[in-house]
């Protein structure tokens, strides 16, 4: 697809055309088979911890949105995959330097050509977002969507870093829990249930 074709498909919400830009979900998940994965959230509390070395030691490091990394000691330095639900500026794209971009938001008009045309690009299906939205009674966070997606793979382990379900707010903004449209209690319950049922999931 050309850039012009992409812009037309995005504007007219031609979902089938946009999905053709994406690697198949099964192929994406196959890339994680047997791997230890670190999913790094943006909780402010992570800045006070020394988890950077453990993050960088994972086989695959996945970060979220603008992926603030205030210090290597707390956050590590590697980014293999970047899960996006917001526009990414050129400076942040260069700083994070992900090997693969996953567009998780149902808001297709925010998707940019640089992401959509990048190697290994993945577009999360609208039906998957709707399923979690209906489960929570609120739009899911990018983190919740990623956990739901990753646990469908044959990864060896998934360790969550920087996830406290907004208890310490986010490094990427100043909004409080009451100012964002998510149900963090429902998301915490989902994660705790998954952890209790599946020993591959760990919360650092």
Shape: globular
Radius of gyration of CA atoms, rounded to a whole number: 16 Å
CATH superfamily: Glycosyl transferase family 29
Mean pLDDT: 95
Taking the sheet with the most strands, its summary is: 7 strands, parallel
* N-to-C span: 41 Å
**CATH fold-level label:** sialyltransferase cstii, chain A
Regions with little confidence, pLDDT below 50 for 5+ residues: none
- Total helical elements: 10
Output the CATH class name. Alpha Beta
The computed structural class is alpha/beta
Series of secondary-structure elements, N-terminal to C-terminal? HHHEHEHEHEHEHHEHE
Placed side by side, the strands forming the largest sheet appear as: 5-4-3-2-1-6-7
**Multimerization state:** single chain
How many individual domains? 1
Helix content: 25-40%
Examine the secondary-structure arrangement and name the CATH architecture: Alpha-Beta Complex
How many extended strands? 7
**Beta-strand level of the residues, as a percent range?**
5-15%
How are the elements arranged and paired?
Elements lengths: L2 H10 L2 H5 L5 H6 L5 E5 L11 H6 L2 E5 L7 H4 L5 E4 L5 H7 L3 E4 L9 H4 L5 E2 L2 H11 L5 H9 L6 E5 L22 H14 L3 E3 L1
Parallel strand pairs: 1-2, 1-6, 2-3, 3-4, 4-5, 6-7
């Amino acid at each position: 697809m050309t850039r012009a074709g992409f812009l037309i498909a995005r504007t007219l919400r031609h979902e089938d055309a946009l999905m053709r830009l994406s690697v198949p979900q099964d192929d994406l998940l196959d890339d994680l088979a047997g791997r230890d994965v670190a999913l790094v959230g943006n909780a402010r509390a992570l800045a006070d911890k020394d988890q950077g070395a453990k993050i960088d030691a994972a086989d695959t490091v996945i970060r979220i949105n603008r992926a603030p990394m205030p210090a290597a000691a707390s956050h590590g330095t590697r980014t293999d995959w970047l899960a996006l639900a917001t526009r990414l500026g050129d400076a942040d794209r260069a700083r994070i330097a992900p090997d693969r971009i996953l567009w998780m938001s149902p808001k297709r008009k925010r998707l940019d050509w640089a992401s959509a045309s990048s190697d290994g690009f993945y577009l999360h299906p609208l039906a998957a977002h709707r399923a979690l939205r209906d489960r929570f009674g609120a739009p899911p966070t990018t983190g919740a969507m990623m956990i739901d997606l990753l646990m469908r793979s044959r990864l060896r382990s998934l360790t969550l870093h920087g996830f406290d379900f907004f208890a310490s707010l986010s490094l990427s903004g100043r909004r409080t829990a009451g100012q964002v449209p998510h149900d963090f209690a429902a998301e915490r319950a989902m994660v705790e249930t998954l952890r209790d049922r599946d020993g591959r999931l760990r919360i650092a």
